[in-house]
Specification:
This protein is an alpha/beta fold and about 280 residues long. It has 11 helices and 13 strands. Helix 3 packs across helix 4 and helix 5 runs antiparallel to helix 6. The mean pLDDT is about 95.
Length: about 280
Amino acid sequence: MKTAVVTDSTAYIPKELRDKWNIHMIPLNVIFGSEAYQEEVDITAGQFYQQVKEKELPTTSQPPIGQFVELFEQFSKDYEAVISIHLSSGISGTFAGAVTASTMAESIKVYPFDSEISCMPQGFYAIEAAKMAQDGVEAREIMSRLEELKKTARAYFMVDDLSHLQRGGRLSSAQAIIGSLLQVKPLLHFENKVIVPFEKIRTRKKAMKRIVDLLGEDASGGAPYQAAIIHANREEEAVEWKSELESMYPNVEFSISYFGPVIGTHLGEGAMGLGWMKK
């Protein structure tokens, strides 16, 4: 049974990996004034962070349902099923759009998957699904495997500036003001599909150390893990962190990824995160 794998742009899977594993990508949009850009298509992360310095903070939007339906119908020519993997339904309507489109695409069976997370941990699901699809594994079995991986998926991130979260409606004004006054670096994570504070930490250095400790709680048993260091225009810092982490956890395969335009709109430049799951 031939199965297609699609994910949205917020997985931020590098194009060479998408091509290698035949992962199809549907873009979300970032909107500066009257100008809409499809992320990973019309605008890169680097271009986005430059534009944010020069313009008002943009807004974001999910792919139109018609775009999903068209994509799913195209797959029906070459595939028997589609697995459609998306960022958490608690922070975006993208997954709901895929579910609606799946009922409208009559010529192919679509399996929407709510990653309940975003960025490269979402990408890990897509890569695993695509590898299994290339091996001819049936779609239902792939979905079972993704649900199994979900039990081990974690992601923690800290923001440098609370104002983006507050302006994007992800944090109340009062929390933003108090956080700014106290120089708090809130450690955030996904819980029940939404972004919530995990702990309030006073400095960036301590926040990043706490993330490392949380990884250690899972990885110290020696089981093989994959992890992504995720940065918002802080590549040099990410490279240094990767080197440090690799020496601490040889059983973890680390990669470097980034918060692209859509997620970067809500977190702001300087955010750092770490996401992982068992292999």
